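Deliverable D4.2, example record:
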Amino acid sequence: MSLLYFLNFSQERISRLEDNLVDHGDRMSSQIDMLFSTMNFITIDLISDWDFIPALATLAYSDRDAANNKTAILEARHTVEKSIYKYSLMRDFHRVAVYTPRGDFFTNNFGPEQNIEYIRTWVSEDPNLKLCTSKRGKVLILPPYLDHWNRHTQEPVFGIVRAIVGQQKGELLGYIEIQKVFTIIDEVFSIPADQGISIRVRTSEGFELFSIGESRTHKKDFTYTAHAPESGVVVSLCLSRKESLDSLYTFIALFAAVVFGLLLTTILFIRFVTIKLTRPLVQLTNHINSINLCNLPNSVSLESEQDEIASLNFAFNHLQSRLNEAIQKEILSQSLKIQANLDALQAQVNPHFLFNVLNVISSLGIEAGDRRICTICDHISSMLRYSTSTQQRDSTIREEIEHVQNYLSLQKIRYEHKLDYTIDIPDAASALTIPKITFQPFVENCIEHGFQSAGKTLKITILGRMESGTFTIQIIDNGPGIPENELERLRKAIGRIHRKVYYEKEIVELNIGGLGILNTYLRLALYFSDNFSFSIENGEPRGVIVKISRQGNDGI
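Output generated by the structure prediction step:
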């Protein structure tokens, strides 16, 4: 049995090693995609600038010896410089460079001036630029190289390059080159040395982007290849089966030998003890087999001379008692388990896909010249990032208000002049903590029920006050209010939750998938215990006022 156990253990070890390779590969491909997406965004941002392409066309087509062209050429150079200098403060990039076949060179990384002949020679002879030109405006990933624009430092970098093609004549206007220091690649593909994983990373053109460890070709080694869908980068990982499992197999063989020796020396003793234990154990076994929910509270009395059997019987009877109590509690917690399962399924959705889609939509909005699309994408992206983050269950008032402001901004775009909102929160309360997504349900409730009066502008006010160490926040609207019978039913439901949580100490069921008023009150009650106050009432002459107060500096 021990050998079977360790053989099964070895299979689990192999499965963990393979899963570890998959996790590393998927993480690396996702990170490298995100890395090149941010670099590609710079090139898209530049060519989306209305003045950038015409300025390059002026530099490419103008006769520079003509006196009447000098002013236009100077203005074109100024336009290109202004377009890339805005990236000077971005520490994420080593260099953003723009250069042309006629020897023009612009960069946000201030350094030594470039010789015109050097630039012309580089553009005409560099094989990577020739390959980039053949791609007709598509990005080419450059493998690691020494920074040729600063020949004094020769710092190792990597990057991307995009050929800029004229819109009318289709001629080459120049290149955009984005560089990052090579240490970033090391960080993306860093793996502890004791794991023994070798890595090979290649671009879609076959250039080697990164490699570490020995190249292995044994067919039994563990291998995994991850393809980055956006950048086309291929990440290949390999782990030697022999090196990773030798110690395990040695331990299994040694353990088997020890177990076999112990079995030979203890078999007679086991036989003797077995005869003594058989009768009471059979009785106990029969009782165990007959247990069901109906007779679970019933205990069994064994006649045995062995103290161990008596102790086992006592422990089993005690276990029955605790199990009976646990079953009653388990029945009450089933709805929470369902909620947890649904939340776990929802949490499996990888938000990076949605972020990438929003980035694409935002880029298309920039190209189309519609800044509203970019604004909507930014708000949605911020709300997704805030609501899908599982690193912590609470957040600060500042973060919560920013989330609600993103939500209201999107609703403002939808309802236009029919919706107005005001947010007034003191700076002293910005760092206080609260459960995540606490204010949004109340604001949603205002919007959902506030447009019942046709033609009237809905006004929502979020007002915070800090007085004598007590922070109070109110969410107020001018809608039709809550009917008195519905408001009374809501107050009774809140009272039942308060009684069950603080006095009866029972598990309260959540509405599955909901973030309504009752669920939000329950989350506040569990987070703050009994050290907060909550009220909801109709305003005068109309509207609803939700008020939450908390004394102290560790939360509302």
